[in-house]
Amino acid sequence: MRLGITRERGRLLSLGLVATGAGVISLDALLVRLQTLSAPAILFWRGAFGAIGFAVVGTIVYRPHTLTAFRSLTKGGVLVVLLTAIGNISFVVSLGHTTVAHTVLIAGASPILTAVLAWLLLREKMPSRTWLTSLVVAVGVAGIVLASPGRTELVGDVSALVAGGSLSLVLIVQRMFHDVKQLAAMSVSSLLIAIVTIPFIGSQGLGLRNAVLASFDAGIALPIALALITNSPRRVGASEASLLLLIETVLSPFWAWWIIKETPSWQTLLCGALILGALATHSVLQVQEELQLEPRATGAS
Question: How far apart are CA 185 and CA 42, in angstroms?
Answer without folding.
Answer: 20
